[in-house]
Amino acid sequence: MSVFSLPMVAERDVDMVTACVSSANAVLRNKPVMLLWAALLAAITLLAFATAFLGLAVAMPWLAYATWHAYRDTLEPEEWPPLE
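Now predict its structure.
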C-alpha cells in the first residue's frame, strides 16, 4: 500500500485512499520489479544498520529519491491535480 502512496500524497491533491489504491494497483501490475525493489530496500537498510546506523544518513535519502523517481515513472501523476 505504501510503495507509492506517500510520494503521491506529498505531491498531488489526492486522499490517502486513492493513493493507496493506486499504489496497490501499480504493485500488482509490476510484481517482479516490486519484489526486486523490496529485496533491494531490505538489503540496503540492513547494510545501513550494520554500520552502526551511520549508513542511514546516506541510505535513507538515497532510497527516498529513488522511490520518488519510481513513483513518477510508474504512476504518471500528471493525471491528478497538483497540491497547492
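Residues 31-50 form the longest helix (20 residues).
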